[in-house]
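An instance as discussed:

___
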Amino acid sequence: MPEERNIMSKEKAGKFPFTRGIHPNMYKDRLWTMRQYAGFASAEESNKRYRYLLDQGMTGLSVAFDLPTQIGYDSDHPMAEGEVGRVGVAISTLEDMKILFDRIPLDAVSTSMTINATAPILLALYIVTAEEQGISIENLRGTIQNDILKEYIARGTYIFPPEPSLKIVTDIFEFCHQHIPKWNTISISGYHIREAGSTAAQELAFTFANGIAYVQAAVDRGLNVDDFAPRLSFFFNAHRNLFEEVAKFRAARRLWAKIMKEQFRAKNPKSMICRFHVQTAGSTLTAQQVDNNVVRTAFEALAAVLGGTQSLHTNARDEAISLPTEESVNLALRTQQIIAYESGVSDEVDPLGGSYYVENLTDKLEADAKKIIDNIVQMGGAIKAIEKGFIQNKIIESAYESQKIIDSNKQIIVGLNKFQSDNIIHSSTLEIDLEAVNRQVKKVKKFKEDRDNLFVSSARDSLANAAKKGDNLIPHIIHAVKSQVTLGEISDTLREVYGEYSEQI
């Protein structure tokens, strides 16, 4: 047997450095969590979709929020006009959150919320909603993305400057360790970095550079690394090159394990585990010949499973055009179920382990990513690299090179630059319910009219004072939510203390 395979045979899944998987038997014992990311104009409409998907066999909720919710504006704010409910559900009040999870027992499902700048507010709303369902928050399971650094790099839904934003992330680490032990406090995202145009190696490097910044901030706060690190999680992209993506996921586990053991001296093996959710690549979907997207998504989902993901979302075929229809979302979920139950890939741990090609790719991606991370460390870390524009410029360069390859037909995209047809769209699209948007705006205005504004004012003052003193903000945000302060008002209170970030040009 060749030397490479002898070395590989000695490494086992469930053991450091976890290249072959985080559990000894992987999917033979338990399949990945099947999520479908969804959110619509109103909490009522989104709730219907969630309950439909749970009835179809989905095993975890994944909530998409609209842009005003992501950047801290209520639905009735002038800045929200034209954006309410466009790319996700609008959540401004506790009442919205209670409707969103109506008849969904929060102690029985795992909920992932893709939210960053307003993550502490959505977490507080979720906590209070669970308490009103009679559920102890120590039993809540789920994830908030809470990855603010990548917003400055690739996505742009930030509110405050990096330093106070990083402080709030650490507040969440501390609070959840003490009160919600099953909650994943952050999902450090490479997904959006890849969507912005990075390479696979850059996706790993920039994600882990951010991860290092979060861990260091928590350690500097005085938290023990083994107290919070087991609840860290990651969010990666499954792109079009199947073998490169499988190798990327394997390299990710090995690289993060070494970072936690060697750099942060973690002792608990769970602190060294890179647990991650994967979403198939939205940037690979085409509006031309949308049915081709079903095949693309299937291969990308297969790469995620062969790479050992813990959770998976499969994009729907029509998402290059609009929010997905119920029919296309159902097909996307069925794609995961067919991979899980019919393909046989879940019957073996790390089925591509030992392959010359995959092992070499794994080693190369690890080495390439580490070289980039070392460069960022020499700059002073992720925040310094962001402030200098280093990471953003590297992504722009990679995106440009990738597009040149497609434009020159060196990379064939079926239906786009070869095998075209005259018919561009073959699918019905989902239209935003403008009446639902209007109802949402009116509902928020009425909520503000009916409450006791003395309680609102007192809670906002308490939150502002806590922010000025540097206290952990999460208990104060929970108090504000219970006092019927809205998401936008909580954000405005913190804006007054921290200011707003403007991208340096």
